[in-house]
Design goal:
The protein has 69 residues and is α+β, with helices and mostly antiparallel strands. The chain contains two helices and four strands. The radius of gyration is 23 Å and the shape is elongated. It binds zinc ion.
């Protein structure tokens, strides 16, 4: 049977450590909203003003009304 991708040698602890040096948690990157200047996730609709790329995507006032119910 053909082997496929089977490692010939087990990776050493040093090599495993080097590989995992990039494996870590990191804080989410935030950018300032172009419209309300509040922090928001890049490439996401702003959760404060509901704007994305010059367009009103979320009806913030409708959401506020929902929260007050
Ligand atoms: Zn905004």
């Amino acid at each position: 049977m053909p082997g496929g991708a089977v490692p010939k040698k087990k990776a050493s602890h040093a090599k495993q450590g080097r590989r995992r040096s990039h494996v870590r948690l990191h804080a989410p990157e935030l950018v300032a909203c172009a419209y309300c200047h509040q922090p928001k996730l890049p490439h996401h609709v702003c959760q404060t003003c509901g704007m994305y790329h010059g367009r009103m995507v979320i009806d913030i006032r409708a959401r506020e009304r929902k929260q007050h119910e």
